[in-house]
Amino acid sequence: MRRITTFLFSVLILTSCGTNGSKQVTKSTIALEKNYSVKLITVDPGHFHAALVQKIMYDQVSPDVHVYAPEGPDYLQHLERIKLYNNRAQNPTAWNEIVYTGPDFFEKMLADKAGNVVVLSGNNRKKAEYITESINAGLNVLADKPMIIDPADFPVLEAAFKTAEEKGVLLYDIMTERYEITTILQKLLSQNGEIFGSLTTGSKQEPAVTKISVHHFSKTVSGKALQRPAWYFDVLQQGEGIVDVTTHLVDLVQWECFPDQILNPSDIEMISAKRWPTLISSKEFKRVTGLDDYPSYMQNDIKNGQLNVFANGELVYKIKGVFTKVSVEWKFEAPPGGGDTHYSVMHGTKCDLMIRQGASEKFVPTLYIENVKGLTFSDFALKLQKVVKALPFDSLQIKEVNKSSFKIMIPDKYRVSHEEHFGQVMARFLQYLREGKLPAWEVPGIITKYYTTTSALKLARGK
């Protein structure tokens, strides 16, 4: 829910605090106007997703946000993004960032307990530790994906969820792709026996479910060219692609194919996995990081003058007996007019549901119904029209593409940007906080998801 508030005049005070640390306090009277049930703590915000959580205001969330971070450019870029939201002409936000920096930033956060929800979106190397210690301190945690990037941290994550249950706090990851309209419609139609039938089992060569995404290192976020930190290109800090973006795709497989079902690692059988690098030239590296050269910690990944980033990965696995393929690829930048893309197909006994987002679709996600089986095309069209009309979205229309497929025509009002999805995830998390619990299927599903990604990484590395 959006709330427009005038950002009141504030006074900046700088004081020395902690071990070589500094505290920047912006006194605000906004938070005094209301007792807020949620107070955010942002820890080491090195990824732009940390700011996107604050792109809008929320009724139950205090405008005062405490930020704890090491010295350096990461947190300064985060503050600049928040400032842009506060100063924009339309629906400006009114966040008041209270910042502590220093080498003891995390220990200081745990000691202060200045809020009740820790937001984690940054360098992933220590994320398992940050999650564990925050949960042990009795704090709720909203973590950007991936929660873990190392197979060795999987039992650590399992233990964190157990502790969260014991302490009555919530641990949740940011799954924005559940809010994409074509994905929602694909899920709804796949549950309709008249149209889709049932999900096939598939095979290793022809999986029943395939999800492929293509991403780009150079992109625009909130109207500005994105500057990424150098560590983002180090897989020991950001994570390999097979445990990073694939988290979204594995999540969607579970969410769409087995809705509201409790899944466990025993439901997963890994078939194959592979990984390969994206080559980044020094010129490209400088363009997105602002650095003249690769940092020394990347020297082992430099081959023939180019940085090898293992950002690409593919896994084939069975989930409850259904063959599934998930793949992610990173390129340096998108073609003109393009952006990150998503491809998804679910094979049913009566038709296939396919999402494409290529040049033919002008890079807009589009849902197709293809390969109609068991009915004449005209009879299927009548059934599809009736089913689509009954969906909880008005103004949807079907359009014949050829004599074997249709596409769903979706009004612009349902086209929500990726950046806006973060507000939707936060709204859902706030609902769960009010209720005091996550759905029964959610935690087992998160654990199963990270078991899948980390198992794939082990297999791809041959370890």
Account of the 3D structure:
β14 and β15 (322-333) form a beta hairpin. The strands form three sheets. Strands 9, 12, 13, 14, 15, 16, 17, 18, 19 and 20 form a ten-stranded mixed beta sheet that branches. An eight-stranded mixed beta sheet has the order 1-2-5-4-3-6-7-8, with helices on both faces. A two-stranded antiparallel ribbon has the order 10-11. It has helices spanning 49-52, 73-87, 105-112, 127-136, 154-167, 181-190, 246-257, 282-289, 377-389, 418-435, 442-461; strands spanning 11-17, 21-27, 40-43, 64-69, 96-101, 117-120, 140-143, 171-173, 209-218, 220-221, 224-225, 268-280, 302-303, 306-319, 322-333, 341-347, 352-356, 366-370, 397-402, 405-409. It has eleven helices and 20 strands. It starts with 10 loop residues before the first strand and ends with a helix. 29% of the residues lie in helices and 27% in strands. α5 (154-167) packs antiparallel against α11, α6 runs parallel beside α7 and α7 (246-257) packs across α11 (442-461). Mean pLDDT is 92; it is low at 1-19. The radius of gyration is 23 Å and the shape is globular. With 463 residues, it is an alpha/beta fold. It folds into two domains: 11-122, NAD(P)-binding Rossmann-like Domain (Rossmann fold, 3-Layer(aba) Sandwich), CATH 3.40.50; 177-461, 2-Layer Sandwich (Dihydrodipicolinate Reductase, domain 2), CATH 3.30.360.
